Request: fold
Amino acid sequence: MPINIPASLPAVQTLISENIFIMSQERACSQDIRPLKIAILNLMPKKIETETQLLRVLSNSPIQVDVELVQTATYTSKNTPGDHLLKFYKTFDDIKDQRFDGMIITGAPVEQMEFEEVNYWPELCEIMEWSKSHVYSTFHICWGAQAGLYYHYGIGKVPLPQKMFGVFRHKVLAPSHPLLTGFDEYFYAPHSRHTTILREDIDAEPGLELLTWSPEAGVHIVASKNGRQFFVTGHSEYDRTTLAGEYFRDREQGLAIALPQNYFDSDDPEGEIPFVWRAAGSLLYTNWLNYFVYQQTPYDLQQLRQLEI
Reply:
């Protein structure tokens, strides 16, 4: 899938070096097709790293994608250069009159706080409410998934005795679901979080379906039965070394951090890192774009209907 992004975005050179099709805005404007409009609400502290990871996994389909990067107005990242945010990011006020085929709401390192204690929670609630009428399908990641389940369905998160940190094997529970087309019965995905969602809470909600599950990591992919919302508690978009970066960062800061499970070869932090989740992660995003965005969204986005929860 060609990604239509500004040529000066830092992710461009990284993606080009990986043979990912980047389309200039000039070339995109000359094509007589309607691209998919995808908004990425990036709540992660290292926004350049996160946007690069997400653009990578959105690139594996023949449909052109126009990406709009969005940040909160009520909190400004301290880990991303201000000129980058000013140049490439918009706020909700900038986009609220637009409609989008799809939206991704990322995770955020705030899962140990109560939702209402997060300083941008009211703004995020406004965005999630807006998404019901202005976005066809929304893909929530990690804390974003927990926030979405809490806001839309009243399902709370539960603290874990220790951080869920590593790469875990998951089982496909709904093999006929289009989001899981082409998946093996078992696959791997990274997790990095301090809280979880209980399976019984998902099973008790008639509007939701649990698609994948891990005996170690628990609830993984949850779908609304109408295909308009997905909640993924892991990080299938992560690079090979992302968990390593988190581990070494915390260790250097003197924080109590265990080795990420099933991650370093032979549990040697100086050893190799087998990249065992890349194929499933790429397929997850490609299936979402194909089956729940491209195949479902009305050509005229003004015809989007309000999502009923």
In short: Residues 3-299 form a domain with the Rossmann fold fold (CATH 3.40.50.880). The longest strand covers residues 158-172. Residues 118 and 140 are 17 Å apart (CA to CA). The two ends are 31 Å apart (CA to CA).
